[in-house]
Amino acid sequence: MKRTLITSTIVAALGGLLFGFDTAVISGTTQWLEEVFDLSKFWLGFTVASALIGTILGSILVGRPADRVGRRNVLFVLAVFYFVSAVGSALAWSWISFLVFRFLGGLAVGGASVVSPMYIAEISPARYRGRLVAVTQFNIVFGILLAFFSNYLITQLNLGTIEWRWMFGVEAVPAAAFFFLLFLNPYSPRWLVTQARLDEARRVLEKCGTDSGSIESEIREIQASLDLEHHSLQEPFYTKKYRKPILLAVAIAMFNQLSGINALMYYAPHIFKMAGAGAESAMLQTVAVGGTNLIFTMAALAIIDFFGRKRLMIVGSIGYILSLGSTAWAFYSFGTEFTSAGSAVVLISLLVFIASHAFGQGAVIWVFISEIFPNRVRARGQALGSFTHWLMAALISWTFPVIADLSGGYTFAFYGICMIGQLLWVVFVMPETKGISLEKIQKKLGIE
């Protein structure tokens, strides 16, 4: 594996690290936000979801800029958004100003969820692509763990009412590092071919590697997949010929959130308090969730190109069903009167849940969506998948505090039933894409 390929992947995946950090950091601040801004459960849910509204817009709007100015240039803009959001959220002088800066961070997360995995997929030879795109997911998970651990350390400093401001502010450091490191990365060779910058594309392929071993045959295959004599980069996207990848992307993105994963990411301390944990214990258990997520993401990353996307999804789906079922049982059985045994059941079940997510959906979603669309519409396809993911995330995150307040059992039972649906979809519908070049996947899905 070539050095430029490895370093470019790591830098691009920093967009994922900031994605994970920005997503999870708010979990440690919800109680402070309720008190400081005097929020009801409904408006707390809205405040948490405010970043997700930005994420939805960021994911759907970033596709065309990524086609026009290039994946790398868009990542520079997203790094600036992350930095301004972190500083602004920390210094917010009112609820409205806080919502605005969180919204800006959401735009960055939505854009990064599209562009980081797409960029890595386009610079990677097929034999490494699963592992390298999954580095984005590893960094998302590492960012989540960093946020949980950072929140825990800050709570130990007893900073009082400014505690939540420090939790948001520390994100400015990795955001600045991301911006400056991007200068080391080349443009995507597939984007360069769309711009007819063939000599530059050749140089990047020489540095990053090819599927066939021949740079010229790789260029010809990319040009054939674009087929710009018969297809335009601006041609309609929602057409019959792209129906199969569109439906696959929408399905995997919807199922990802119907597991309830973002409810756990945003409300982990709240869930553990519901199950009887004290405030400090709940924050520490959240760090355990982040650590489990990281370990099982690393395991999936190591084997995704050998084991395949589909098998990981099957294992993860079964784990989801078992863990969500036992969590729902615990909330049905103990209600609001949890014993230490009941609290242990919830902790163990949610650790199994996060392991199942990390090993299955978490490792696969961004790899799979980045693979199934043809070169000429990949940016828009990736944007659609991310938009669906974040729309569902916003719905889950906004409704969770209200619904869980009524019944934790019903909430987790609903997520478990949805995961039975995911298992059936994976077994009967989802195609395997491991070890196949992006151009050959296009042919496998019957797209001319």
CATH H-tier superfamily: MFS general substrate transporter like domains
* Average pLDDT score: 85
Would you identify the CATH architecture?
A: Up-down Bundle
- Give the DSSP E fraction (strand runs of 2 or more residues): under 5%
Structurally, how many domains make up the residues? 1
Radius of gyration: 21 Å
Order of helices and strands: HHHHHHHHHHHHHHHHHHHHHH
Task: Find the CATH topology.
Answer: Growth Hormone, Chain: A
Briefly, what CATH class? Mainly Alpha
Tell the overall outline: globular
Distance between the termini: 31 Å
Count the helices. How many? Answer: 22
Helix and strand content put the structural class at mainly alpha
Compute the number of strand runs: 0
Task: Detail the poorly predicted runs.
Answer: none
Helicity, as a percent range = over 70%
Major sheet characteristics: none
Could you walk me through the main structural features you see in this protein, from its secondary elements to its overall organization?
It is globular, with a radius of gyration of 21 Å. It contains 22 helices and no strands. α2 (14-24) runs parallel beside α8, α4 packs antiparallel against α20 (378-406) and α17 (309-334) crosses α19. The protein has 448 residues and is an all-alpha fold. The chain has helices at residues 3-12, 14-24, 30-36, 41-61, 63-69, 71-91, 95-123, 126-155, 163-169, 172-181, 189-194, 198-208, 215-226, 243-258, 261-274, 279-307, 309-334, 340-359, 361-371, 378-406, 408-428, 438-444.
